[in-house]
Every structure is written in structure tokens, then in C-alpha cells.
Records
---
Amino acid sequence: MEHTKKKQGRQTFRFTQPVRVLSSACFGGAMEQQGPLGRYLDGYDETGKFDGENWEESESHLQRQTIEKAVEKAGLTIKDVENLFCGDLLRQMTASSFGVKSLGIPVFGVYGACSTMGESLLLASVLLEAELAEHVVAATSSHYATAEKEFRFPLSYGNQRPPCATWTVTGSGAVVLKRDKEQKPGVYVTAATPGKIMDYGITDKANMGACMAPAAVDTISTHLKDLDRKPEYYDKIVTGDLGNVGSDILLDLLKAEGYDITKQHMDCGMTIYDQKFQDVHSGGSGCGCAAVTLAGYLLQNMREGKWKKILFVPTGALLSTVSSNEGDTVPGIAHAVALEWKE
Amino acid sequence: MEHTKKKQGRQTFRFTQPVRVLSSACFGGAMEQQGPLGRYLDGYDETGKFDGENWEESESHLQRQTIEKAVEKAGLTIKDVENLFCGDLLRQMTASSFGVKSLGIPVFGVYGACSTMGESLLLASVLLEAELAEHVVAATSSHYATAEKEFRFPLSYGNQRPPCATWTVTGSGAVVLKRDKEQKPGVYVTAATPGKIMDYGITDKANMGACMAPAAVDTISTHLKDLDRKPEYYDKIVTGDLGNVGSDILLDLLKAEGYDITKQHMDCGMTIYDQKFQDVHSGGSGCGCAAVTLAGYLLQNMREGKWKKILFVPTGALLSTVSSNEGDTVPGIAHAVALEWKE
């Protein structure tokens, strides 16, 4: 099969256009503000309500205000944004639809469970690579209260969670991308590896780290192989929400593939909360987990020169309550996006 | 704001790469086989079960076999397909995830409710325009039994439907796109207009045609304005599943915008079933409605020379049972894709 030069190996894209991160923004709730990354938030609502009349509306408001803030930080207005890629965890993606409908931007709804920030960032970059837009926004959100209702039990049941369970982040992250022909210094999306769905047959939906780890292994190892890179190429290889349990599996399985990423690896789910003082069991999760960590902590540290090259690999568990109740496994997916500082 | 030449007007993409429809396939259930488009199906299962143990698995099998058939008809193998864009109506998109996971193709999950075939086709074309792939598949599915369970009542309740309600198509359509540098004669994706979310405040989820019509109006009029085209440019302007009620609204509102598309307009929902002899009330609906009509009837008639130019505009209603139960409106979205025969 013939390939263009932009396509590397089996499944990696190499962007030839200057896809620059113009700005990013993130908001969270009380838990996220109290956590170690709290100071990277553009704002928070300690009630988690964001002026919504119900939790779904709260998440919609959260996502919209995050997008608006990112656009404002880019020095743009909403009218300058040509396309929006967004998605969330709720059935039929209503947090996003109701959140962004008033913005009047052509919308592409995307779904990759908690890997959604990777998918939206990747596809937004593809649109710029195709030279079909100049300014595009990639965003996603999750909310603890909507996710518990969607996937588990109403909050008032107060159900117990096993130690391998994760805590859904109340948060949203948005990134404004620009095809920057002037190539100003900044963070650029340079490559990306869209993920395949991996299913190792795990059915325990309370152990999503284990369900998603094989997908992260496949995407990271494919990315490194396709670009003939060693883990050391990156200052950080950042998974989304594998948590303690999933991260251990990731490191073990990647070693078996010949890649030791122990030194580079960081998991957003293990970083966003204080694992000593915040009772989140295996870590944070949800689309917002990787999105908030990227839009706040990761990009800020890149701007400050701490890290030059990051491989961002959010992971998603492709289940629903219906699939789980019918006894199905929990397949996973992970999309990798390479971010590099360029002078 | 600066625009590349590929971007026309406010929001229309013009593809400069040869994005050719290499093949298409569609499968349906008994209702679809008995309907006027039955002879365009590649196959059907009159039980609707497609060897599934439950309806969700049935839809997954249906979507996978449609993709496999389309790839086979293209003279390719699954390994030749570099990327897959797919989605469906079920919560967390499980019909697609479980359907395609065994194919081993990097997957982009997309959600635009019943406009999903438009979104998947549009984004697959963008990927080819970016020269990041040579062969991409766009697909979607819906299933009467899973959709009734997801959005309405269990089938065994036998609930009554109002005359403006539509019947969810059991069906899947898949299209294989190729960046055809040889530019062989065939159907090409030449332009596309991604849609904005439109909300006219309608809350009647049994009248989805009315909810979606404003989005179709906005996308079609924007497309024609952006490209400075009259409706006569197209042999057919094809909406997805507006049905009888929504189609009347579409024609009226477009006339108010200065566009009379009465002669060109066709609605997949009004075409896929026999409105005299099949009791579907306002017509067919679901992601599969536009997808089956495109992959079967529309593309076959283009191949046979009956139509040279089609504007395909599937429409989606962005609701969930939760948003409806909370009293929310039903916003709509429509994505337009221009298909043209080239010698």
C-alpha cells in the first residue's frame, strides 16, 4: 500500500503544517481546586453547579465557559473559531451539544470515552493540516455527578467503591489551535497516532485502568515504532486516567514490548488528585481528567520551558451500563498526540 | 480572518484532493427489504437479529458486516483500511465500538445523532484531503429495537406513536473512500459544509422532523451561499430523516431564505419505506436511514448515470432521554456533503 510522507509506519500522522497551540483553558470543581493542580485552573465552582439547574446543565455550562475562556485567552472572539471538536461521557453527548449550541460554531461531535481530548485534538489538527481552517477548538468535559448517574448509582445511594475504582473529574479543558504560518515560538502538534480498540476480555467496570492499559500499550508502542523513536525522545509520556492499577499494567506490558517508559511516564489520573489526602482510590478519571491536566498543568509547564516534548495519550473505556449489564467486556482505546515546543 | 482557497465563505470546505467513493454497502432488516429501496441492499436479516444474542449485539454485527462488505466490494482487505470513522445512536456509542473492535483499524468515534453518516463521510474526506491516508471507511448504523429501548419504551410495551413520529431504520451503510491519484471515473466528494447546532425551542421529541428542519435549512442555505450555487446545481438535495412533517418545514423555511429546492429535494426518511403500505407514520429515521439510502439507492443511481450531482444532508436530533425528561429542547444538526460524478 502506498503512503504519503506524512503517514509514518502503520498508523502515525506527521503534521507538516504549523499546528500551534494558541491557548488553553480549564475549569474544575472543589476536588480539582483542592488537588495538586488546583493552581493551574482558570477558575472553579466549589459547588460543582456552574449555575446549572441540574447536573447535566452544570456540565454544559462548565464546557461552554471553558471554551469561551480559551478563546478569550487566545485574543480571539468566538466568531474567529471556524470549527469545534467536542464530546463528553453522557449518553448522546448532551453535555457538549447543549453546552456549545449557543456558540454558533460548526460542531463535530466526537466520542472516545475518556480519550476524547486526544481524539478532538487529533482531528482538529487534521483539519488544520488539510488547510481547511485557521482556528479550531478542541474540547471535552466530565462531571462527577453526571458520570455517577450515567454509569453507576445516584449520588444519594452513597455506594461503596473498590480500591481499583477511580473518581470522575469535574472539569473541562479546551485548546485553541491555529495554523500559524508565521511559526511563532510555542507548542506545536507535530504528530499523532490514532488508536485501535483493544479488548483483553476484562469485564470489571470498577477496574477501568486494567481495561484501558492494553490500548495505551498498543498506541504508545505503535507511535514509537512508526516514528522510530525511543521513549527518551519525550520528556513526558502522559496517559489519561489509568490510575495506579492501570499504570502498573502499562509499564509491565510496555517492558514486554521492549519499551521502558518508567522515567517518562506520568498519568493524569494519578496527578490531578492528592492520593494521600484526597480519597480517590486509584486516581482521577473522566474526559475532564486528561483535558484539565493538559490544558492547565502540561501546557503551562511546556510554556515555562520545563518540558520540550510531550506525548499525550488519553485513554478511554468503551462501555455503557447496557453493555456491562449484558455481560460484555470493557474494550479500551487510546489516541496519542505529540506536542513539541518550537523556538 | 484569513482563509485558504479551500475554505469557501463562512463554513464550506472544497476538497482539492481526489476523494473518490471506491465502494459502498448496506444491510437492513425486514422492513427495509420490503420497502422501495429493498433491491439496493447487499443483504438483510428478516429477524433483525444478525446472529446477536441481544439487540445491541445485533446492531454491532450489522455494522461490522456492512463495513466488511463495503471493503470486499472495493477489492480491498480490512488491512488496507487505514482509518475508520463510525458512530451510532446508542449511549456511549457501543454498537460501533463492539461492532468494529475486532477489525483492528484505528477508529474515530463520531456522534451527530442521525446526521452521523454525514459527519463520518465529511471527516473521512478531510483526512484524505490532509493526505494522511489513502483508504478510509465511513460508516454508521441504527436498529429499530435498540433505538426504541434507548429512547422510548421496551418493544413489548407496544406504545402508541403520534402521526408525526418516525420509524427507526434497522440498517447500516458504509462507504470506502480512496485518495485516487489516477482520478478514475466515479463519484467524488467535492465539497462539504459542517453544520452548526440549531435550536428553535421545540420540545416534542415525537416530532423530530420539526426539531431538525432548522438545522437542515441553515446548512443547505449556507452551503449554497458559500459556493454561490443555486439549488439547480444539484440533481438532488437529499435530507436524512425529516419525514413528511420536517420536509414541509424545510421547504417553507428555505423559500423564506430565497431558495426553492422543491424540485431537487428528496428525504431519505420519506423514501426508504412505502408510505402507503408500510405503517411508519412520518417516515424512517435513525443513522441507518440516510446511510442505507446513500450507500444503496443514491450511489447506485449516480453510478448508473441517473444523477450527476447530489448534496447529501443527513440531519440529527441531539437529545437524550435525560435531556428530554429534564424538559430540555431538542436541538438539531445537519452536515452537508457534495457528491459529484466525474468522468
---
Amino acid sequence: MREVAVLGVGQTRFGELWDRSFREIGIEAGLQALVDAKLSSAQLGGLFLGNMASGSLLDQEQIAPLILDYAGLARRHLPAVRVEGGGASGALALHAGYLAVASGLYDYVVVGGAEKLTDVPDATANQITSATADHEWEVVFGATLPALWALIARRHMHLYGTTREQLASVAVQAHAMGSKNPNAHYRNKLTLEQVVGAGPVAEPLGVFDCAPLSDGAAAVVLGPLETARRHTDTPIRLAASQVACDTMAVQHRHDLTALASTREAAVRAFAQARRAPADVQVAEVHDAYTISALLSLEDLGFVEKGRSGPAFAAGEFGGSGRLTVNPSGGLKAQGRPFGAVGVAQVVELVRQLRGEAKDRQVSGATLGLAQDVGGTGATSVVTLLERAN
Amino acid sequence: MREVAVLGVGQTRFGELWDRSFREIGIEAGLQALVDAKLSSAQLGGLFLGNMASGSLLDQEQIAPLILDYAGLARRHLPAVRVEGGGASGALALHAGYLAVASGLYDYVVVGGAEKLTDVPDATANQITSATADHEWEVVFGATLPALWALIARRHMHLYGTTREQLASVAVQAHAMGSKNPNAHYRNKLTLEQVVGAGPVAEPLGVFDCAPLSDGAAAVVLGPLETARRHTDTPIRLAASQVACDTMAVQHRHDLTALASTREAAVRAFAQARRAPADVQVAEVHDAYTISALLSLEDLGFVEKGRSGPAFAAGEFGGSGRLTVNPSGGLKAQGRPFGAVGVAQVVELVRQLRGEAKDRQVSGATLGLAQDVGGTGATSVVTLLERAN
């Protein structure tokens, strides 16, 4: 299998981008990535785009050719393919782009993720979010995505003694990290008291335990590792890209507090890269809800099952320890434009591995992990990125 | 690049399947394909699913893991990825599955396509259909998908003298073919008078110039060609899979009467397979509208630009000539469950190339072509299938 590298990255600001259309943000991120990769559009072989909700929210399907068209590339008739898996759509697009280059049929591709979520009524956006749960077994009975994660949180608290404050510490760290990220949706800091005292969404989760809905786009250029140095002095090798799935409905799982899809994707990814969790210095994980970050750290193998709460609250993942988690601010502070999230995670890791992350640089990072999750874990994608020597 | 073969095929009946859910039809087609490929689910490496409208119509995203889950495979945590490109979603899923096996990261995958379109109000379904056009440049001004194809038809008539009766002959042949297909949505025959005399949808296109909206699912099993004979006596080689795109809006094209995306995808596919249009004995092409079939035959290289109308009306593609078109009945008679169409085209071609197509067998077929189109041609996928010796 041909080795694949990330040659360039681009990202818009995440947030409420009311003055800019879906196509504009998609193109901005893609062009940034092409410029960063020193790749002319004439060398480009195709586009793989992650997006979840343009059909429901914008009445627009076929958005991969749409972005290609408005980037001025339709006349070259490039292939453009949209990939969807709820909140994991971006990382799934990366997986598809990875397969494209690894197969040898494509040389250089842009993988993009884009989503516009704030131009529609909140009720509509929340309905869309719940479309990633099991419609027939969860949603029609009134379950929403935060309610399902709250159920999981309660069980984790019951089984392992995880506290409300430990959950809150995830959000506090996210906002501290996000305050250093110029692309972040939220750059304000939060205190533990503010998070714990905020209004409830689905108890024990309050407003500040839940990531916002954001507009935003991100893009990376992938190409063969063997020719990567023509494009960048610091090629980042895509050491693994693995997808795993689980039941749609939480109630159908053996263990409420395990993200089995994440565990499996991680096991496969570490096997593919011949590395172990202890080798990773920087990770971007799924903190759409504070509880989802805790489960993720456990199932990725970074901390023993049940120990993530105390470890997080003690600041083990905040930059002083062996592993720094979500230096971008994560979904909680950087923002949550569904389809863009998984691509933005890779953008952040590439900047970290290149040593270009400025104020939020994790020193000496050589191996990074991104984990992107759809719904309550029906889809997980784990990506390992390594600085090529 | 590793060579890829189709090892098994499965398909539900297409039509108004009100008594069966989305998940049921998806699973039926997938299991049929696994049985046909003599593949146990333990050997299966992943699922690639084409679907266009489950988010909009069923409030359900992440439908690839949903199908996996209800097939009883969630416990194995297989990868499952949904791919979307309007009416071309099924063939794009095939392209993604092809890349997966060609790359070597996957060995055996199911590629499925499924869609439920008849359980919702007609107005909703028609809105969804138009979501494959350019929302901001076409749909908000009142253009619908049939109206855009009608515009193209008028131009083709003006430039090349194509007649109303020539358009109608496409539907007449489709129903004649579909009458022999037990899975077809419509098995009644039509006369030229019936098609020409039917009520208008968007003139010159009448009701019988437009394919129906259908429920249905189709699936194929892909695997490495080198081990294909363990699974089947008649492996069908995926000789080419190519995607090309074009502007979303018809008004932005140089030539209204050319499907440039189809032309480019076909050129690339014939180059990949080192074959030419004259080598193809059987083709499944995009007859969502009678005019779209005529354009497709021209841009695939089967007939000179402007000559498709007389050639079709003369019966050149009806089974007596060098090339038989749409022996399944096509979208017009077999039916049009968006995401399933591109996969069903491949199912039909595999049956033809194996010599298992019964009443509708094209004798001696060794090379087949499938062409799947999204919207008015923003996406085209061309697949070449060859009987392996």
C-alpha cells in the first residue's frame, strides 16, 4: 500500500459566520490548504468532502461538486465525493481520501469538511443533531443526543465515582486551550464554578458541558509520501486511518460507559502504525460533551477505564504531562461544525507536529492522534499522524 | 494497484415497498450479495453505502452503521461509510469500495445502495429530487429537476432535430425491457402513443418521460481478483471506476446538450481499462428522463453527438444491435431509488456478464458499462465490468 502524507492544511474561523455562505467557507479552507501544500490546482486529482447536514438544513445535496464548482474547478471535471457519518463525517472523508491516494488511482487530493449550522432555527439544528441517534429506537421516544450522553455520564459516575466537577474540568481546560486559538468559536475562559453552576441541558450535563453548533470549514491536501518533500519541508505521514462502528442505539450496547467503536478503531490504528498509546504526545478527541471526552481517553487507551475523571481534573492532559489533549480547544471551545470537525482535528495535529502551533505548541510532539465520533459512538474514526524524518 | 472483482450481487424488488423499512431492504440486498459471494460475514471487512436522502426524508443520518447494526454486524465493529452524490450516490459508494479493496487496506467489502422515497408526501420527495440541482442558482428561482432536463431536451431538439417521438422511444424500450425483470417497479409495456399523449411534467417531457421515485436496495460484494475464484466460478473484474464532475447549474455550462462529466468519466474509464466504446456489448445508462438517456449515449461515445434520437428510435440499442442499453428496464421501468440505482446497474451487468440474466440475457456479453448521474450531471460515475477469463 502506498504511503500517504499530509502536505498542506487550511481552516476558517469556527463560529457564527452569518456573513459567509457554505460555499465560501468551503473554498477558503481548500485554497488555504492548496497554497500551504504549494500545489497548483492543475495537479489536483480530486475532492473528498465531509458534511452531515446540508441536505436537511440547506436543501442542497451533491455538495462536493458544488464546492468544486465554486472553486472554479468544475471545468477540469475533477472527481468530487461527499462522505457522511454524523459528527464523524470529516474523518470519514479523510479515510476515503487516504484510500484514494493509497490505492494509487489518485495522487493529490483535497479532503475538506464544511458545515453551516447557525443560519437555521435552533430547534432545527437540534433536530439535525439528534438525527445521528437511532431514529426509530431513540429519537421518536424523545431522546436527544445530549440526553443520551447524560445517561452515559450518570452510569460512569455510578460505576467509577466520576464527579460533576471532574466532568466540568474538561470544559474548563477546553476553554483555556481555545483562548489561544485564533480560529476558535469561543476564546473566553471558564471557571469550574461557572461550568457546574450553568443551566442544565440534560442533567448532569449543563450548558457548558455541551459543545456549541458552529459554522466552519477545514481542509488538508494529501499526497504520496515519496514525493512529499517537493511540497513541504515537514511532511506529516498518515501512519494510520481506521474506522469502526457500533450499534446506533445506546440501549443495545453491552456497556453504556464504553465507546467500543473508538476502542476497536484505536486498536486497529495502533496495529497499523506499529505504535502504542504511550507513544502519542498530542491528541484531538471527541469532547462534544464533557463525558464523551472522558470515555474517549479511556477507550483510546490513554488512561485506565474509570480513571479519566480524576486524571483530567488533576490536569494530566493539560500540557504538563506526557499527553496533551485538545490543544485546539476541542469541539467545546474551537467549535463543532459537524463535517469539519474531523478535518480540523488533523489540521491542528499537523500544525503541532510541524512545530507551527505558536502559543499552544506541544513541545517535541512527533506522533499525534485524532478521534472523531458520530452520534453516541455508532461511528469512530482514529487517525495517527507522524512527523516524517 | 490491486485488481478488484465483483464476487456477489443482491437486490430487492424496486417499487412502493410500504410494508418494509429502510433497514429491512438494505439488509435483504446485502445478505443476498453475501450468500451469492459465498462469503461469511466473519470474512467481511466493511460496508460502503450509497444513499441520498435519508437525512432529509427519514431524519436519520449515519445510516451506514445503522444498516450494519441491524444486519447484526455491529458487535464486530466493522467500518461502515455512507457516500452521497445525489442520484450518483450508489456508484460513488462503489467507487469508494473499489478504492478500499484496491488500496489493500480492505479485502472484502459490501457496497450497498438503499433509498425509501415513497413513504413521504410527493411534494417532499420532489423537493428532495431538486436538492440535487443548484439551490441558490436554480431551485430558489423555481427550477425543478424535470424542468432543467426539459430545457436541455428543447435545446437538443433545436440543435439536432431530435423529435418528441424519438424521446418517447426511450421510455417504450425501457418498459419493454422492464417487463422481463421481476424486480422492476413497472412491468407494463407502453406504446409510443401513450408516452407522447401523457400529461406534461415540463414540456416536452411528459409523465412517461420521467422515471418514478422508488423504494429499493441493491448490493455487491467486492474482493481481490486474485482470490475471486474461491467465491465464484465467474468473477467479474472491475476494469475501471471513474468519477467526474461538472458545474451544478445547467446555465453555467458551455453546452446545454453535453454531459461533460459523463464524457470525462468515460474517457478516463476507457483509458483505465484500455478498451473503447465499441468493445461494450451491454450498458446501463441514466434514463431518469428520456432526454438524459440520449445525452448519455452520445457522451459515453456510443453514438455521434446529435444522432442518439434517430438511433434509439430505430431500435439500435434494443437488443438486435451491437450494444444493448438498459436491459434491466433502466431507471424508467426498473425504478429510481436514488442511492440504489448505481449499485443496481452493476448488479444487472454482473448478471448479464455471468450469463444469468434469463429472459433479458444479452448473448455473449463480455464487457459492460454502467453510468450513474447526479442531478443534471454535476456528478457522473462510469464503471466498466469485464468477465474475467
